[in-house]
Amino acid sequence: MDTQPINPVSSEKGVALIIVLLLLAVMAALTTGLTLNGQTEIAMATNERYYAGARAAAESGLNRAIEKIIADTSTDLLAAGAVPVIGNGPFTLSSDYSYSLEILDDDDTSLYPTTLTAAQLTQMGENGNAANNANQRLILRATGTGPNATIVRVSRVLQTVATNTITQTQTTTLSNPAILVNGNVDVTGSSLVSGTQGNLHANGNVTGGGSAHITGNLTATGTVSNAITVDHLRAGGMPPVTVPEIKASDYLSLADWILTSAGTITHPNGSSCGAKLDPCPTGWTFSGGGWRADGAMPSSATYYAQTDVEMHGTGKSSLTAISVIAEGSLTVNGNGQFTPENASKIQFVTNGDFNFLGNADADDPTNLDGQIMVREQINIQGNSEFQGRVMVQDKDSASNAYNAVTNPNGRRGASSFATNNIQGNMHVTYNGSLGDIASVQTITTTGPTVYTNNISGWIEQ
C-alpha cells in the first residue's frame, strides 16, 4: 500500500495574499475617513463664510433703509409697507449675496415664533392687528441671503409719530452722546465722561462742578454749568435731542429667563424650571416683592424681571455676561463686573429708576459699547464704570406708576429718587458704535400729516 506524505508548506499557500488584501482594505477605510473628515471641515468653513456674507448684506441693507426713512416725513410706513424711495427689494449685491427689506407692525405674527398672548399685547400697547399701529412702533427688518440657502435677519425698532402738520422750517440733528438725559442732570465730584463720543446732552439744565470732566461736548437745551471741565463744545440753548420711549417690554424677546412677580423663575414661554435636566439659574432670591442677586453668578444670561431688582457684588469677572431688563427699578452695587449678554448689546433696562453704585464695573475690556436705558431717573456714583451709552427718559415718577389698563409699561414698585445725578469717581466711556440719534426740529402750521421716524434698539434673529 502506497501512502503520500503531507507537505506542510503547501497547506499555507495564499496566506500572504490575504494579509495584503486585508491591509489594503484597512488603508482604504482610513483614507476614506480622512477624506470625509476633511470635506466636513471644508463645509463648516464654507458655511461660516456664507453666514458672514449674508449678515453683512443684511446690515448694509438696514443702514441704507435707515438713511431713507429718517430723511422721509411724508410716508406712512405701515400703510406703504416699503422703504421710501428704494422700496423693499430684493437687491442683488453680487452673484452670491442679496438682501430684502420689510416694515412690520411690532405685533405682526411673522416676527415671533409663537402667537403673542393678550397680556403681552397689553404690555406692548398693541391690539393684535398687524395693519393698525397702536403704539407708534414698527420694526424695520433686513434679510440677507447667501449661497446654500443661507439666511440672516437683523432688525431695528422704528418710533414713528404722525402729526397733522406741514413743515415750514426743518433741521435734522444727528447726535451720538455717551449720556443723553431728557431733563435736568447734576454732574459733580470726579465724574468723567470720555471716549471718541464722550459727549453729554440734556434736554434741560446741566448743573454741577468739582473736578467733573467731559472730554467731548457738553450741551443742553437750557443752561450749562461753567464749573464743569469740557474739552470741546460747551453750549446751552441747543436744540433738543429726541429720547425714544423706553419700555422694558420692548426687549422681552431678548430674555433667557423670566423673574416673575410671583417669585418663580420660568422660561420665556412660561414653562417652569428646576428639574434635574432643566435647572433654574442660581444666584437669585425673591423677598419683599422683588428680586436680588448676591455674589458670583455662574449662569450668564439675559434676565427679564417683572419687579424691582437689586444686584450686590454680582459677577466676579470682567467677562461676566449678565444683562437685566426690569419692569421695576434697578440697583447695581458692590464690586460686580458685567458685559452685555445679548447680541443687541443691552446691558440694563428699567421702567423705573437706575442706581449704579460702589465699584460696579460694566467697562468691557474688549471695547464693547453696551446700552443702559432708564425710563425714570438715574443715579451714578462711587467708583462705578460703564462703557457704552446711557439714555434717560426722565419720566415723572407719579405719572409713571404701573397700571395694567392705563399704564401697562409704567414702573412696578416704588420710585427711588426724583432727580438725575452723576457724581463721585464715576467713569462713562463711549466710542459711538451704537449709532446716531436723529432729531428733527420744525416750525409748523396745520396741514397734511407729517411722519417723524426715529431709530432705537437693535434686534438680531
Essential attributes:
461 residues; alpha/beta; 2 domains; 16-stranded mixed sheet; nine-stranded mixed sheet; globular
Uncertain residue segments: none
**Total of DSSP H or I helical runs spanning 4+ residues:** 3
* Biggest beta sheet summary: 16 strands, mixed
Principal-axes geometry comes out as globular
Terminal CA distance:
94 Å
In total, the number of domains comes to 2
What is the helix content?
10-25%
The secondary-structure class comes to alpha/beta
Rg computed from alpha carbons, rounded to a whole number of angstroms: 29 Å
Approximately what portion of the residues adopt beta-strand conformation? 25-35%
Number of strands: 30
Provide the residue-averaged pLDDT. 86
Short overview:
The chain is of the alpha/beta class. It has 3 helices and 30 strands.
Q: What is the element layout, followed by pairings?
A:
Elements: H1 15-71, H2 77-80, E1 91-92, E2 98-105, H3 118-124, E3 137-146, E4 150-175, E5 179-181, E6 185-187, E7 192-194, E8 200-202, E9 206-208, E10 213-214, E11 218-220, E12 229-230, E13 234-235, E14 257-259, E15 265-266, E16 284-287, E17 290-294, E18 301-305, E19 309-312, E20 322-326, E21 330-333, E22 346-350, E23 354-356, E24 361-362, E25 370-374, E26 378-380, E27 385-392, E28 421-422, E29 427-429, E30 437-460
Parallel strand pairs: 5-8, 5-27, 6-9, 6-28, 7-10, 7-29, 8-11, 10-12, 11-13, 14-18, 17-19, 18-20, 19-21, 20-22, 21-23, 22-25, 23-26, 24-27, 25-27, 26-28, 27-29
Antiparallel strand pairs: 1-2, 2-3, 3-4, 4-30, 14-15, 16-17
